[in-house]
Design goal:
Two copies of one chain form a homodimer. In chain A, the strands form eight sheets. The first copy, chain A, has a six-stranded mixed beta sheet with strand order 5-2-1-9-21-20, covered by helices on one side. Chain A is elongated, with a radius of gyration of 24 Å. Chain A has two domains: 138 residues, 3-Layer(bba) Sandwich (FAD/NAD(P)-binding domain), CATH 3.50.50; 200 residues, FAD/NAD(P)-binding domain (3-Layer(bba) Sandwich), CATH 3.50.50. In chain A, α6 links the parallel β11 and β12. The relative contact order of chain A is 0.15. Chain A is built from eleven helices and 25 strands. By secondary structure, chain A is α/β, with parallel strands linked by helices. Chains A and B meet through β5, β10, α4, α6 and β18 of A and β5, β10, α4, α6 and β18 of B. Chains A, B: This is NADH:ubiquinone reductase (non-electrogenic). Chains A, B: It catalyses: a quinone + NADH + H(+) = a quinol + NAD(+).
């Protein structure tokens, strides 16, 4: 059955197909770069690898998309045995060892599925248009547009109730992303925008962080979670714990009997895995994640691996691993190594996650960091957060630029990327039959 | 008739309304900042001021939109008498001294119209979808997406004719923008992308610059124009002069009997002024530009000024001024100064354009510069181009970051912002009723 071990095919190169260029897929590919006997094809629906932990900075106008994204092609260009294709996987044929993409079909000897996750509205997909989540660059620019446009609209209107609605921001979900978004909006309204508006007082902004559980950041200790809550409140964020959202519409958010009028609602409450696993007939858990064996392959298909947010791996502690960047990174690296070593006849080992702790940032100068009993908070924790994120940000140039953006934001209380870009609103239909010469570049001006 | 001179109203503040936050509008506002006796409202349909001369760099993935744009609010936040509103002007009522916007009506004592221009397809608006022009950030990101997607598509297909079509780029219009786009695509395909692709050879790319006139860059001397043509040809750009486009469709471009199959066509051939002047009953020339008096006001309405690309001003030489950034900048400054001085009773002077020369850049290390008899070209001219553009780029932070981006691109042959971002393609519909915890930020990884 398993043609990988069949004799007589030793001389031809193995085809390794990686679907997804996130932390898992990219690191699997890096392990296979310039390895003899294997041809790697990495397919992603975007042409870039995204440093997702900083995506909220794009949504909050602190960074530009290009600061936290790098073309996958460039990251892998040194490896002649790796091809990168732009495309979207549609279905997996495990028996036929092939994957159907929007541009055609690709065969594989080894398959690495690392398609990630998207946000989940707990069965209320109709909430999505009122409360966008944050998973892609497109989401981030949409959130940026909504947050900034609400301030702009409030500046133009005079009705106080309407103004209040446009200055109310509700963030649903008190995990790290929700905390980051709430802290950034609180800070933006208190400091960055307060001097720029004439007709409204942006410090009248209400930022409400809604969490269904009893406290925010439940993955941290209670002490650290409380510290984060105090830091958020200092930025003007109101925290509503034990509050379950029952409806979201254009007027705002309903929480049982209560309701908050808000023009801007952001969703940071839950995610679910890509559908590709389920549709391929693979074993999935109740969150759509593919259940994997100790070596990250799937049952009966040792040549098919699933990694990152898309996989459900039961940890040595008995819990499944969370959908975080370190998990995806370590899993991708493990799979790449497994394939590489198998080509030289080595037996497989079991994946083991090395937990190096967790962090969350609150505004531009506070964070919490926790690793077992080691806990820090405040400015020192924020510096640690900064160093770790800069260190892992892919590509030298991005690192330097991001540090400079942050230094600028930090010193000036400004946000560098406060642009509202709407693709369609900006082109007027051209009509005149004649035209004037193309614009020239400026070489002069009045002093 | 003219209430500005009417006695008894001396004590109330004048309302100065500026429509458009480009070079003209912004500089008019800057002259009126913190001036007593005048309240300024600047309305723009975007929340940012755009450094348009570098927009082609955004289209060519060298810079991010935020590098060349700054929020108008921030630029004017030091001036308490200036309000900035986001909105689009719909009509001007000269007799009633008011402007209708999408959000409501504003009255004015002084009006400054500086709405700029958009591209013109010479009566063939149906070409726009096949051949986008470059006037806004949205245009630039659309062009970037098309150029990069064509390379990605060529990598995925095998049919040689189809591949050739996807690797053919036609730029219509041999002015500075057309030359900049052609040079950048030529360079990108020869150097930046050549090592990143496996299945195609990006150096097989054809970049064709089509110009209706007998030579490119007609505003420069013949000597300089020829030099630019040679520099472009060294980057692999083919120049077709005296070639008139007769049709553009999804297959490519038709030039009379000839045709070029091309998946990507860019339009840099002509622009026309905003429609606002014409619809307000103002005197316009055949390109839709409002004809202005020597003081940049319009006939019979000394309190209404039109500046920049939207205005048609007859120069001391007898020619109308071109739609360039230096003209807009100087006109805006002049108008702001005129209003400021009129408040103190000074008589008006006439606008005089100070021509400080012109430049065009070809790829990442060549340019031509011309000021009367003074002409330079090559690397020295490119350095001059660089210095001038950095100097005029608004805001310290942007300047430093842009220099760094360029230094990086120059040293590495990479392009920093090679992202294809499509707003809709990236969100999968969420479905599962359960969700997993929010993602955490990475603090660790395998070495």
């Amino acid at each position: 059955m398993n043609e990988l071990q069949s004799p007589g095919k030793e001389t031809r190169s193995r085809q390794a197909l990686i679907v997804g260029g996130g932390f898992a897929g990219l690191n699997a590919a890096l392990q296979l770069g310039n390895v003899k006997g294997v041809e790697v094809t990495l397919v992603d629906r975007h042409n870039y690898h995204l440093f997702q932990p900083l995506l909220y900075q794009v949504a909050m106008a602190g960074l530009s998309p290009a600061d936290i994204a790098a073309p996958i092609r460039s990251l892998l260009s040194a490896y002649q045995n790796i091809s990168v294709l732009l495309g979207e996987a549609q279905s997996v044929d495990l028996a036929g060892q092939k994957v159907q993409f929007d541009f055609g079909e690709l065969n594989f000897d080894y398959l690495v599925l690392a398609c990630g996750a998207t946000h989940s509205y707990f069965g209320h997909n109709e909430w999505e248009k009122y409360a966008p989540g944050l998973k892609t660059v497109a989401h981030a620019t949409e959130i940026r547009k909504r947050v900034l446009s609400a301030f702009e609209h409030a500046e133009r209107i005079t009705d106080p109730d309407e103004q209040k609605k446009y200055l109310t921001y509700v963030i649903v979900g008190g995990g790290p992303t929700g905390v980051e978004l709430a802290g950034a909006i609180g800070e933006m309204s208190r400091f960055t925008l307060s001097r720029d508006f004439r007709r409204i007082n942006p410090s009248h902004t209400r930022v409400i962080l809604v969490e269904a559980g009893p406290r925010i950041l439940p993955m941290f200790s209670e002490q650290q979670s409380n510290r984060a809550a105090r830091d958020l409140e200092n930025l003007g964020v109101q925290i509503w714990t034990s509050s379950v959202v029952t409806n979201i519409n254009e007027e705002g958010v309903e929480l049982g009997e209560e309701r908050i009028n808000a023009a801007t609602v952001l969703w940071a409450a839950g995610v679910e895995a890509s559908e590709l696993g389920k549709s391929g007939g693979m074993p999935v858990d109740n969150r759509g994640r593919v259940i994997v064996e100790p070596d990250l392959s799937i049952q009966d298909h040792p040549n098919v691996f699933v990694a990152g947010d898309q996989s459900s791996f039961t940890h040595q502690t008995g819990n499944t691993l969370p959908g975080t960047a370190p998990v995806a990174l370590q899993q991708g690296t493990f799979i790449g190594k497994t394939i590489r070593e198998e080509l030289t006849g080595k037996p497989r080992s079991k994946f083991r996650f090395h937990d190096k702790g967790q962090m969350a940032t609150i505004g531009r100068s506070r964070a919490i960091v926790e690793l077992g009993r080691f806990k820090i908070s405040g400015f020192i924790a924020w510096l640690a957060w900064l160093v770790v994120h800069i260190f892992y940000l892919t590509g030298f140039k991005n690192r330097v630029l991001v540090v400079m953006q942050w230094a600028w934001s930090y010193l000036s209380f400004r946000r560098g990327a406060r642009l509202i870009v709407d693709r369609d609103s900006s082109s007027e239909p051209p009509k005149a039959p004649e035209a004037k010469p193309e614009e020239e570049v400026p070489v002069s001006s009045e002093p």
